[in-house]
Amino acid sequence: MSRLLMQALEMAGYDVRIASSLRAFIRDPLDSSFVNDIVQTAELEIERLSALWNIEGPPLCWFCYHPYYKSPDLIGPILCRRYDVPYITAEASYSPRRETSAWGEMQDTVLEAINQAAVNLCFTERDKVGLQQASATASLAKVRPFIDATPFFVSNTVRKNRHMVVVAMMRSGDKMNSFEHLAAALNQLHGVPWTLSVIGHGPLYDQVQECFREIPEKRVQWHGLLEQSAIAELLAKSSLYVWPGCGEAYGLAYLEAQAAGVPVVAFDIAGVPEVVDHGKTGLLTEGLNDELYAQAIASLLNDEKQLTTMSSNAVEHVRNFHSLPRASATLAEQLQRVVGQ
User: Are residues 97 and 182 in the same domain?
Assistant: First the structure.
């Protein structure tokens, strides 16, 4: 998403430069030695950039993507105060349950940056509400999640009847939970003709395959890692995208599928409703209910007319609300309001 933001800003006519390569990711706040090293490195970066700005002049603004308790911005807010430069965040998040934990100091740093920001760009309503609850004074604006949809738009394609597809990393946590729910749901559809392409790999590849052990092998094809062009080609040949979406912030893969004209079946959970229009571009079912999820999949696989309608809707949904040009225009509006140009 950070690369997409840079691309969108450049499309709007801005000269975007990565100010620092410092990765302020803190795994353990109690590791004082590591934290001190990060803070000291940030201080050196502040002085390096100050020297540069004294010669070249400061930028129009400082843009920080995704500051949160494990990765606060230790550079931008200080420089922006020093040089009176507007500070902007995108996808900042605040977790109240971390306030009384060892992360408290990092939380305070994030909240100070949120309050300082000329605008905090929120990709989901959930994030926006979270920031509103954390700060009564924070300036907030909404930007829809977006992708560069061009590689996924197709003009003419022949889709395989009742063929489904999913693209996901195979790792512990929410990704594994989603694979488990998907397998459980598909295991209820023995009487429905379907096939599935699984794209992706990761440390739990074997465990993911084990989840599907009760499903006939001929139904599932494992593709492993694929380049974007190959993914786009498989999407274009599929009729349904199936991914429960446990814990998804929003899920860019849903947008890629819809851009390719593939309706989605997912849980109505986390940030998924931000990118899937229930009843128009797919179906969202009650979270963690495998039976309802299976029923939704079957209902679409057995209704070719609805699939065709949703396929057209999905393409227009991405084009109108979640495309790179649309995001670029929205970002330009926000920056013009903040920096005046």
Answer: no
